[in-house]
Structure formats: structure tokens, C-alpha cells
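Researcher: Next entry in the queue.
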Amino acid sequence: MYVVFTDVFLSFQLFLTFYSIILQVYLQRSGKDRHLYKQINNQNRYDMMNKKLFLCMGIVMTSLVLNSCDMDNDGYSLDKVWYSIATVEPLGDSPAYFLTLDQGTTLWPAATNIPWYVPKERQRALVFYTILSDAFQGYDHAVKVLDIQGVLTKPIAEDKGEENDAYYGDDPVKILDMWVGDGYLNVEFRFNYGGSVKHFINLVKRDDAEKPNYFEFRHNAYQENAYAGRNGIVAFDLSTLETDEEEIQLTIRVKTFEGDKNYTVNYRPDKIAQEPPSSARNPQADFAEIV
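Model: Structure for this entry, 291 residues:
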């Protein structure tokens, strides 16, 4: 990052130096033309030569600046866009924050296109960014945030027993992807939507001694008449799960359009991702239509 700014500064200094030299030559020649030459043809010839010199210098300096800005000091292309689902980590009461990816990689937003973004504690987000450098002040990368969209982030819901269907609903969904990352169960899914009400999404932990790590993915469409399919992403905070084991297997029952289906994922309390997402590297979601 600093090398980029240094290259631009040196290029600008070089440009000013050449500009000063050419300007002096131009003034000297203009003086000679005024005092020694009276022929219009000579004056036109000098003007044309000066214009060509300025044009060549402009092309050369533009090339230098563009080349210095195209790559940062770690070899990253500044026009390459990365996107990841990350955890937003606010720094105190200030608007500053950093990002943690599923595998624990940390990103420091050294620059941003959305300075009005307000970070929230334990909030998952879909982040679009460019990498500026590696190993920046204790973070794995310094980045420029191009866009950031909050992902629905929720705690595990309590089991209401016989009231689960009425309260949480049990409407079908299609699971596109499900994985554990940075201590969250992340689910990308598709559902039918009618546009009149936000749908209610939850992860319910069943109180069953025989199935200690058994969950249900619940979707309440509130009996809405659906006319289109929508995609959604939700992240459930698993930090409240109590276990002395290094790794546990979670079973999630989902009502799909083909009937009930059980999904299994591995969870480690140390938050190391075990199963990287497949399709979630390019997620599509309608963030405003689920709660």
C-alpha cells in the first residue's frame, strides 16, 4: 500500500521536473521568436514541436502512474474483487472494525467505499473487497471494502415443544449450502415468497436427552400466497453450545420440498472452520425479506 503511494509521489515529482525543463525551453524559444525572428512559419514550427513534447510527456507520466497503481507491494491486482462471508468485529464505541473470515483470517479495512457503515457486535456480513497488502499491523490483510451487506445473524432459538409449529412455522425450503465457519452455522437456502410479509427463520435446539445435538431449521411463511422463489442467507451463533469435546457433530432437520431431510455438520468450539462452503462463495440473497 505504501509502495503504491510512494511510486505515485515519485512519478509526480518526475513529471514536475520534466514539466519545468520543458517550460523553460518553451519560454526561451518564445523569447528568441519575439526578438530574433519575425517569420510566422518558424513560430508555428516551434509551437507544434512543443505540443508534441507535452503530449509525449503526458502519455509517459500517465503510463507510470497507472503502472504503479495497478499492483500493490504484495503482488495483488487492485482491480480484483474478493467476496466472503465474514464476522464483523467492532473496536469499542468507535466506527472502526475488522473482519474475521470463516477460517480465522483477519482483514483490516484500511480504506472503504461505504464510510457510513455502522458495525454491530457479532454480526455476520457479505463483504466485497480488494486486498491491499499482507500482514498489516497484526491483521492478515489490509483491504479496501467495496461493499458490505449484513447477513441475518441469530442465536439458537429455544424449544417451545408443542408450540413450535405455530410459533416458528415449518414451511419448506431448499438448502443450497450449509457449513460451519468462525463459530456460526451458515445456511444458504431458497424459499417461496409472496412479497407481503417478512418470513421468520430460526434454528431450534430440541430438548431431547437421546439427541443432545439435534436441531430443526424452521421457516414460517405466515400462510402467505407465494408467487416467486427467493434466496436467503442466515447465520446462527453456536457459541452458547456447551461441550467439553474438541469437535461435535450437529444434526439439523429441515423440511424440504421433497419432505424431511437431515443434514450433519461438524462444529469445533475453537471456531476453526471444518467444512468450507461450496456455493456460498458466490451467494445470492434477498436480505430484506427474512427475519
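Model: Helices lie at 2-35, 40-70, 164-168.
Researcher: Noted, moving on.
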